[in-house]
Amino acid sequence: MTIPTLPLVGLSDDELQILTMLRSDLLSQRFKLQLLDAYFNGEQLVTDLGISIPPQLRGLHTVIGWPRTGVESLEERLDLEAFRWADGSDSSELEEIAEANDLLDESSLAHLDALTYGREYVTVGSPDDPDRPPLITYESPLDMTLSWDARLRIPRFALRESLDRFDFGLGPDEKLISLYMPDETIFAVEVDGGWEVIDRDQHRLGMPPVLRMANRQRTADRVGKSEITPEVMSITDAACRRLMGIEVGAEFFQAPQRYLLGVSESAFQDAEGNARTAWETYIGRVLALERDEDGNIPEVGQFAAHDPSGQTKIIDLYARIMASQLSVAPHVLGYSSDNPASADAIRYADNRQIKKAERRIRRFSATHRDSMRLALWFRNGEPPPKERRIECVWRNPATPTLAAQTDATVKLVQQGIIPADSDVALEMAGLTEDQRRRVRADRRRAEGRRFLDSLTADGNEEDEDSEADDGEQDL
């Protein structure tokens, strides 16, 4: 007699097969992601060619933060400000979910990881307290992966290796995994080479509540690519080697080398006849030398000091190449020329990065909208109607001046294209979501005061009319 494995205690054969597949994918990608993370943090090890660097200086580590500068420069243009219904209806439920999960701040972390690693994951789940909104969390690709259905454009399965073990009372050596299936989420811990199920969350959605925020997707590569491309890594390594060459040159050739011809051995001895050290001989500012046996005066000379300008010119060249790869202006990477760029030239140099930011906004907005729809599904028990579209409000990535935005808005209002009291006018003028709420509140208060004033004026007119009627009757 055999006792069947209970679903609550162990994983089924199909679940174990899916878990093995996802773990293999997660481990195979982790080294590449850690390499990208090293370049972002300036912790990459530059390959030593073994030619110009002496063994004593091989431990020298030079860093150029160009990958971080390029990624953060693009991420700083991606400011998510609010969620709202596109039809203009009340968006209080969307605002409640966003505020409860701190999405407007947390989204910047998700954008930064997506640009660095090429992807980021979003999970949606039920809260511990049923009175609270659903949970939306952003997960690093170092700890999470999923299997994607390219035809339906939805995930099939997903896996997360968690480091938060305290919720389940696990020890530091026990590994917790979350296996996201179409109808349930399974929490399991590794025990004696196997997996013991701790809990099963039966959500019955028909799909895993996991989304992928991918960067630089292609039809043949839905996983996404990092902004730290192989070209960026290669140029960064080359620039670091140039910096290391400058450091080596400073150690060996920065102080000018001297030479002495026709000098006797006594010139390198002190008054007591002891040999001086090389440093004592070098730093001697006045060399008192005797004539040789033939009466000739020793010759003293100096080699030219090392000039690092050749290396710095090469680094400037790398900075210009890197600027084209990262789509940033050269001055962002520290390159400067004798003729500073004009304001128009700087704005023109930012055009490509602005366009990149607009494309990222379009791609990331789809993930944010889908995560909010999943949260509403968890909250209401059914998905919102497809015809009700959720809109993500972003700050203008071009960062124009307030005067320019206001001038453009005033012209649109004067031409009658948009109403003066429209919320669109406030948004185009550059006001943030909080500022627009305050303006709407001020308008409502002003309308209320006008309504009360009109009622008061109507009452006064009625009193005057009644007094006039009474006077006529007396006459």
Descriptive overview:
With 475 residues, the chain is an alpha+beta fold. Helix content is 44%, strand content 15%. The chain is built from twelve helices and twelve strands. The strands form four sheets. The chain has a five-stranded antiparallel sheet with strand order 4-5-6-7-8, covered by helices on one side. Strands 3-2-9 form a three-stranded antiparallel sheet. The chain has a two-stranded antiparallel ribbon with strand order 1-12. Helix 2 packs across helix 4.
Give the tags:
475 residues, three-stranded antiparallel beta sheet, alpha+beta, five-stranded antiparallel beta sheet, single chain
Quick recap of the structure?
This protein is of the alpha+beta class and 475 residues long. It has helices at 13-41, 66-75, 92-100, 103-117, 230-252, 278-283, 309-326, 343-349, 351-380, 402-414, 423-428, 433-474; strands at residues 80-85, 119-125, 135-139, 144-149, 154-162, 176-180, 184-191, 194-202, 210-214, 258-261, 299-302, 390-394.
* Neighbour order of strands in the largest sheet: 4-5-6-7-8
The main sheet comes to:
5 strands, antiparallel
Label the overall shape.
flat
Give the strand tally. Answer: 12
As a percent range, the share of strand residues is 15-25%
Q: In DSSP terms, counting alpha (H) and pi (I) runs of 4 or more, how many helices?
A: 12
Radius of gyration from the alpha-carbon trace, in angstroms: 35 Å
Subunit organisation of the chains: single chain
Euclidean distance between termini CA atoms: 116 Å
Poorly predicted runs are none
SS-based class: alpha+beta
Could you report the average pLDDT, rounded to the nearest whole number?
Answer: 80
Helix share, percent:
40-55%
H/E element sequence: HHEHHEEEEEEEEHEHEHHHEHHH
